[in-house]
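Fold this complex.
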Amino acid sequence: MTSLITMDDLTNEEIISILDIAEQMLPIARGEAYTPILSGKVLANLFFEPSTRTRMSFEAAMKRLGGSVLNLGDVSTSSVVKGETLFDTMQMMDGYADIAVIRHPRQGAAKYSSDAVEIPVINAGDGAGHHPTQTLLDLFTIRKCHGTLEGLQVALVGDLRYGRTVHSLSGALARFGSSLTFISPSSLSMPREIVQDLRNSGVDIVETEDFLGSIESLDVIYMTRIQKERFPDEEEYRKVAGVFCLTAKDLVNAKKNMIIMHPLPRVNEIAPDVDSTPHAKYFEQAFYGVVARMALLCRLLEVDVQEAIE
Amino acid sequence: MTSLITMDDLTNEEIISILDIAEQMLPIARGEAYTPILSGKVLANLFFEPSTRTRMSFEAAMKRLGGSVLNLGDVSTSSVVKGETLFDTMQMMDGYADIAVIRHPRQGAAKYSSDAVEIPVINAGDGAGHHPTQTLLDLFTIRKCHGTLEGLQVALVGDLRYGRTVHSLSGALARFGSSLTFISPSSLSMPREIVQDLRNSGVDIVETEDFLGSIESLDVIYMTRIQKERFPDEEEYRKVAGVFCLTAKDLVNAKKNMIIMHPLPRVNEIAPDVDSTPHAKYFEQAFYGVVARMALLCRLLEVDVQEAIE
Amino acid sequence: MTSLITMDDLTNEEIISILDIAEQMLPIARGEAYTPILSGKVLANLFFEPSTRTRMSFEAAMKRLGGSVLNLGDVSTSSVVKGETLFDTMQMMDGYADIAVIRHPRQGAAKYSSDAVEIPVINAGDGAGHHPTQTLLDLFTIRKCHGTLEGLQVALVGDLRYGRTVHSLSGALARFGSSLTFISPSSLSMPREIVQDLRNSGVDIVETEDFLGSIESLDVIYMTRIQKERFPDEEEYRKVAGVFCLTAKDLVNAKKNMIIMHPLPRVNEIAPDVDSTPHAKYFEQAFYGVVARMALLCRLLEVDVQEAIE
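Structure:
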């Protein structure tokens, strides 16, 4: 692995190895220890689409390890406006940085960028394509809370049609042998080809519109935001949006160690009264984005963490 | 003290202690010494309203001490636009940073943010509310120039009605026993309740529209910007704005060690010919913003400066 | 030299000395070595006009050497909007940073800024004025590829009328005894006074509209972007733009070690098939911007590189 474009770039062993390194990063990410193993290294943060969480967590990851960050900044005032191609912009970054993170509205842009340069490139979202570091942090969160990625009952809820997060996570969980429940309004159900691929590879899948019917059996509920603008009719949206909203009282029958996740930002899919339940893990999940990215940066920059930390 | 929301969070002893630490920071802030006592620490700079001076001086303060800064960046392209609540944004910061600085248009937002997270929060202006680090640097400047905060004659000039800076400074100076002269057009006079509170606590206060009448007796003239948009009638504005403009020739009767301060940016309240007089301290005052913030960051991050520096 | 406003601030010896230091910076800029000789130093990046390449390469230069960067950020939301003068903004920077880089739409703004403060100021472009660090990196690239700045045949191509880059580079190359060929449509030819000055100082100059006629004799082809908006008539633009486009097949008669340069961003002046020829040096040139700026920062901050590196 020299770049990370999709989760298919990683074997299961490599995923586990990254999660193990991420585990070691926890005290550094919390500011309890300072181990500047990336000092002198420069990350280029290339967000051709706005991002707060992903951008800032990569920046935090780099700085917690002593590295530096160059921000492309607002694309509307960058050289992109003067007609520069993505290829040329990437050549510039090849000379300025040791590694680049790219988010771009065009599917395939991260792969194209990675092919254009010698430095490692991390895909932080390419349109309807992939967002593998979100999947890494999701897996880290699940393993952290349940001690394993295997044999879990995981429900993915909300917009399963357009959400690149849930597509990628489904595939990854399937590789580790978890069972999946897809809960969505029919208009936003998981794309047929993804469901078919998963079933072909032997994954146990349930599809339903019944939000809370199976809650007692679940280990993970992964909520996503349903975007109003996907619906032609606002009335249709309101019906659906109202149903897929988790509240504290919905959780009475849940397993004690069932966890609720969300890639954030949330709007109203999870009521504030859920925040104080022991099930709520979405804020911890956001924090785990820092350690997952720290681990990935170390791997791609070929820093031997064991040696550096000891 | 675990956060700084208003000056009321600090005892007089704590204020003096912060000013003492700020004094020790001077060579580091000037780049004459480098003591990275905050290395590995991460500050989140959350400016929901634009700011140049306050934002950059916090950033300089952190970096002079070896720390790192995460900028939320332009709010119009952040997750706030996707409907994220301030509570949720703060949870994210709680996971990314060791301390946060927040400026927000809504009064009370800093307190709300501080209550939402475990990391210390510094209020850098909450609408018509408070801006305590401005007061700390103002106090530092006065003490630096006069050697004391006690027994001084301080005039506050200009827009005393809307300026949070002068409200907060009045209260702080009163706590140290200085006498106050409030000089403003009647339409922009200090709010009645503030004047009453100060008088009730025994402070000697003069209110006047006469700009330069008492200049011989003053130790400090604190100028502020009169904002045109406060006046319904441009003619009214012009009359007032012209009168409250300090020029070098106005200073002939001033005490030798009288100092002129301004929170900046200035527009035309202080003529450029004042800049080269020994009274002009507003640019030094801006610089002292760095040391005052360095001291505060060390306090809130619980770094023992004495031990670290020696 | 305490600031760098135009190339006239540097003697030939000083230029050579900066290029020599830049040479030593190569492994650090490539991330192969980390020598934080500017740790604790703070650079203020003041871009009153948008810039991607120059801004990011100064930032990379500073960070590769362990220094920190303060960005003024988007001018449309800065204190400049509140009516602050450039003089006052610079006073603030004098207190926050050890050195400042300024790009400003107004010719003369860099000199004015430099006169206003005690810290060194680097001109990164002042309207139609100067952009000396571009010239330093251009000279570095030429010397790196040809081993010398003397006795070369250099063609400058494209918009020679408005481009501050080619004005400044012509003068510098002339000082080192290279011969110049100016290739442009007549409407965009090199200003008469520049040509006259160069000829008066004994430089060998050819002016032509014939793009490729003399290619066999050239050591350097320096391409520039022709901006559509310079032409009153789009038809006129298209005729010219089509002619001044370099393709791989144009290079068959070129010397083996002839190099092609471009300040970037390019639009269509150089076809992508040129990129893979050994003549293409424009991406390396962009990278050399980092080392040239590293060297300059060390010089102006008075860091003894020899001593620091050994």
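Chain B has a mean pLDDT of 93.
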